[in-house]
Design a protein that fits this description.
The structure holds 2 protein chains of 2 kinds. Chain A is α/β, with parallel strands linked by helices. Chain A is built from 22 helices and 16 strands. Chain B has 3 domains: 139 residues, Nitrogenase molybdenum iron protein domain (Rossmann fold, 3-Layer(aba) Sandwich); 119 residues, Rossmann fold, CATH 3.40.50.1980; 121 residues, 3-Layer(aba) Sandwich (Rossmann fold). In chain B, helix 11 runs antiparallel to helix 12. The chains are: A alpha/beta, B alpha/beta. Strand 4 of chain A pairs antiparallel with strand 1 of chain B.
């Protein structure tokens, strides 16, 4: 039975044997994963992190004409206050109008915990439909309904005939999975089950054969460009530019896609992922159910990776020759433009922390710019990253490698040892390096350019500026303390990683 | 309250307020006993709502958290908490450890008290609060942190010391101007010769907090936030309290000082002398604004939208000091019905004689409808007494309202996504000057 026929998608620990705890070197990881997956480990000391609700909401809040109804305690979904900036800017860039995200909370109380939250949810859905008249009502469940046993799918099914909006139950119960990338599956699952039906076509009394042919031709050259909110508009435009240079049409999906137009994703010639962590769950579904093949291999971050990404697409359409011309010209132009920055980058040590593929691809990119990779941390590990590891392993392999769902205590320990010149970390993930006085730059921000050839240049330009004047961090480090004990800095950074149920590996 | 949902809540859960408060305490390390996403969700909310302030000494994603999973939901999380605290003591340096629970660990019923007691018995300064998100919003969480401090950390049975007071009612990160607001009031009271503990400012210490039981008065600068803690403190430490809304600008601050003076039986001349001095200073600065205030016609109608503190205090300041017309005031908190008259009362005796409409509405998109019912729209009248020129003082979510009304806007109440706030405060006399600077800067931004 297809996953999409079940109410909830499986968690990634089960589906992909995804893991969140490892510390060592790249060679060490290669040994561990060769022939089998990394054993499931955990930590005896942990710091807070995010859950699947956050990346889930980053996507869901972007959908126009939709209301996100958080079913949970009142704090769940408060991250939307930050994500709203992306919704505002993103709406403006794509639709010419600044618009706030619209998220609501059923604000479950102690009484609801005891007596169940289904009635409250039902009433809320009815009121949302009446008050906002949205195209879709997204019911995102947090931890509490997951524990008290609210059946959000049952409620949605019961109410669907009574409301005009499409109801989408999305399972974001944070305690159920350690792998927040499960969020992509959860959102895709809801979209796949609810929004992909073609609207009823009206019979054409006058047949326009030419228009039909034109549409058919257009669709045969249309690609689904998947974006789960890891790219801002500027990055979408860069990839669209490259794809259009090959004569292709681009359908960006699912962020900022109107629910009523989502069915178009089932008509394209091929789907292209920009990150193997994001889309495999949905792309397999599109292939199985709608016969749309997919490409999911390289992340177009860095020069070589962007070229590989283009080649894969070109090969699908038999456009290899055109692609090579495009790549040669793009790379030549880019390399010339980068010359200005390279002397400052040469030999500088860099430490990278992000989602697995993004971290590894950026490691590659930074090498291309002349940096030396001193360490890489990724939020989790699964089989889809093997190709990226192989690319990195072709260069110097002797750097520290850590799989951790944030856990800055491990990071601080490694940074003290490796003393990098530059650190690239995720959203809310640069403060530790900043307090150490290391030059920093955010590795993900939907307002900035990271992707494609343009992304390489823009990232280089920003790193150049950070390195040219890192005094903000340097001055900080003198006066702003980090919260760790002296003995922690002397301990093994991976001291608290242990096999499940076992002792530390010290 | 019987709402079916809350639109774009302008608060987090109890854990969110508690984590923010605990990270704001001096040398304190919060330890979350919660699911892994709670800390991140709270951190993101601060990132987007707290005027670009995130974390602190051990905040953000540095906060130790037990990150309970399905296994703990099934088998219980006490053992995991024990392990987490033991290892936190090894890794994270703090003088006080503050265990805070989340929804998951409260629903499964972990005995946190028992685990924390084991460490207390071993001599660790560690306390806890039950801050599961379904218990209430972030202001409630803030209150619970203070209650726990008074019950479990502040030394019991110490002698009262004349001239010593505690002041609270301003929740860290939820009041985006918390540091400036607390420091401003602290400074002012110090000018009266008082020794002030405010818990969360750079001037506060754990030693000072431990001695908070020696105060002769607690001053709660909020009709809502921290009131339960005041009751707890009275019960445990026998300290009486007064409740005053946070004073912004001279009119409210004069009253504030007189109330504090009366409660402490301070020399009335001393109080009046300070009031006189501070007003002179305030108007010394304001003097140079007079020409432009007149020439640019800087008087405005205003809609004020905010939490229980800001809605009332800003409206009062606009009315009684700035000479504006804050005709329409919206409080966006979830208040019990019996709490509402108290706030309405605050707006009933304005010196301007204005009688603003006060609406209690949690849902941002409903506010425009309330306003339209209050101030009739122009029905193609040639002569129409418009709500103009006007200003919306609210949160960054109220920009759409300002746009609909075609008026200017300033964010002061959570969320404040569009301003950077560090030590700025609006309390007291100098706070009034700051708010005037910010309001009029917005008016003349295109000049």
């Amino acid at each position: 039975m297809s996953y999409f026929e079940q109410r909830e998608p499986p968690k990634r620990e089960d589906r992909l044997q995804a893991r969140i705890a490892f510390g060592g070197t790249l060679c060490g990881l290669a040994d561990k994963t060769r022939g089998c997956c990394l054993d499931d480990r955990e930590r005896g000391f942990t710091q807070g992190s995010i859950c699947l609700l956050l990346p889930g909401l980053a996507m869901l809040n972007s959908l126009p004409d939709s209301v996100v109804l958080l079913h949970g305690a009142i704090g769940c979904g408060a991250c939307s206050h930050s994500q709203n900036a992306n919704v505002r800017a993103g709406s403006n860039l794509r639709r010419g109008k600044v618009k706030d995200a619209l998220w609501l909370s059923t604000a479950l109380s102690e009484t609801d915990v005891i007596s169940g939250g289904e009635v409250k949810l039902e009433e809320a859905i009815r009121e949302v439909d009446r008050r906002y008249r949205p195209s879709s009502i997204i019911v995102a469940a947090g931890c509490v309904p997951g524990i008290i046993g609210d059946d959000i799918d049952g409620v949605a099914a019961r109410l669907q005939p009574q409301v005009s909006a499409k109801i989408l139950p999305v399972h974001c119960e944070g305690f159920k999975t350690k792998i927040w990338a499960t969020a992509y599956d959860a959102v895709y699952h809801a979209i796949g089950r609810n929004l992909l039906d073609e609207p009823r076509e009206y019979e054409q009394f006058l047949q326009d054969e030419f228009a039909e042919l034109k549409e058919k031709h257009m669709l045969s050259r249309t690609v689904n460009l998947m974006n789960v909110s890891s790219m801002g508009r500027v990055d979408e435009l860069e990839l669209s530019r490259l794809l259009r240079s090959l004569g292709l049409e681009v359908n960006i999906f699912p962020v900022f896609a109107h629910p009523e137009e989502m069915y178009k994703v089932t008509r394209a010639a091929v789907s292209i992922s920009t990150c193997p962590t994001h889309d495999d769950y949905f792309l397999k579904h599109l292939e199985e159910k709608y016969g749309i093949p997919y490409i999911i291999r390289h992340m177009p971050i860095g020069i070589d990776n962007t070229s590989l990404w283009i080649r894969d697409v070109a090969a699908f359409f038999g456009l290899e020759e055109q692609a090579e011309k495009l790549i040669a010209e793009e790379v030549r132009e880019l390399q010339n433009a980068l010359e200005e920055f390279k002397p400052l980058f040469k030999g500088k040590k860099v430490f990278v922390s992000a989602g697995e593929i993004r971290a590894l691809a950026n490691g590659q990119l930074l090498r291309e710019l002349g940096f030396e990779v001193a360490g890489i941390r990724s939020f989790h590990h699964d089989e889809y990253a093997e190709a990226e590891y192989e690319k990195l392993a072709a260069g110097n392999r002797d750097f520290v490698f850590n799989i951790a769902n944030a856990q800055p205590f491990e990071e601080v320990n490694m940074l003290k040892r490796t003393k990098p010149d530059l650190f690239l970390g995720h959203w809310c993930g640069n403060a530790t390096a900043s307090k150490l006085g290391i030059a920093t730059h955010v590795i993900y921000n939907t307002g900035l350019s990271y992707i494609g050839y343009q992304g390489v240049y823009e990232l280089a330009r920003r790193l150049y500026r950070q390195l040219k004047n890192p005094l903000f961090n340097k001055r900080l480090s003198r006066y702003v303390p980090l919260p760790y004990t002296d003995r922690w800095y002397e301990a093994d950074p991976f001291k608290y990683i242990k096999t499940i149920g076992g002792e530390g590996v010290e | 309250m019987l709402s079916k949902f809350i639109e774009r809540p302008r608060y987090l859960c109890a854990l969110g307020g508690a984590m923010a408060a605990a990270t704001a305490l001096p040398e304190t390390v919060p330890v979350l006993h919660a699911a892994s996403g709670c800390a991140g969700n709270i951190t993101w909310a601060q990132n987007g709502g707290s005027g670009l302030q995130v974390g602190g000494y051990c905040g953000g994603l540095s906060v130790p958290s037990s990150n309970v999973q399905e296994r703990e939901v099934v088998f219980g999380g006490s053992e995991r908490l024990r392990e987490q605290i033991r290892n936190t003591l090894e890794v994270v340096a703090g003088e006080l450890y503050f265990v805070l629970t989340g929804c998951v660990t409260e629903v499964i019923g972990d005995d946190v008290r028992a685990v924390v007691s084991e460490f207390r018995d071993a001599g660790v300064d560690i306390i806890f609060a039950e801050t599961g998100g379904f218990n209430g919003n972030s202001y409630h969480g803030y209150d619970l942190v203070l209650q726990s401090l008074f019950r479990n950390y502040v030394r019991h049975g110490v002698e009262k010391i004349k001239g010593r007071v505690n002041l609270w009612g301003i929740a860290p990160f939820m009041d985006v101007f918390w540091r400036g607001n607390l420091a401003g009031l602290r400074l002012l009271l110090e000018k009266l010769g008082l020794e002030v503990n405010t818990f969360f400012t750079a001037g506060d210490t754990l030693a000072g907090i431990k001695q908070a039981g020696a105060a002769e008065l607690n001053i709660i600068v909020s009709d809502v936030y921290g009131v339960e803690a005041a009751k707890a403190c009275e019960e445990v430490h026998g300290i009486p309290y007064i409740i005053v809304p946070p004073p912004i600008g001279p009119a409210a601050t004069d009253d504030f000082l007189r109330q504090v003076g009366a409660a402490l039986s301070l020399d009335i001349f001393l109080v009046e002398e300070l009031i006189e001095q501070e007003n002179k200073l305030y108007y010394h600065y304001l003097e140079t604004l007079i020409d432009c205030y007149n020439d640019l016609d800087l008087q405005r109608y205003a809609v004020v939208v905010g939490d229980a503190n800001y809605s009332v205090s800003v409206a009062k300041f606009l009315s009684d000091d700035v000479g504006w017309l804050p005709e329409f005031v919206v409080c966006t908190d979830q208040l019990e019905e019996e709490q509402q008259p108290q706030l309405a009362h605050r707006l009933s005796g304005l010196k301007s004689g204005l009688q603003p409409a006060l609406v209690f509405e949690t849902d941002t998109s409903e506010i425009l409808g309330h306003f339209n019912r209050y101030w009739p729209r122009n029905r193609s009248q040639k002569y129409y007494n418009a709500f103009s020129p006007a200003f919306v003082v609210g949160s960054s979510l109220d920009r759409e309202l300002a746009q609909s009304l075609g008026v200017l806007h300033l964010s002061v109440s959570f969320p404040v996504a569009n301003r950077a706030v560090l030590d700025r405060g609006y309390t007291g006399y100098s706070g009034g000057l700051h708010l005037i600077e910010d309001l009029f800067s917005a008016v003349v931004a295109g000049r």
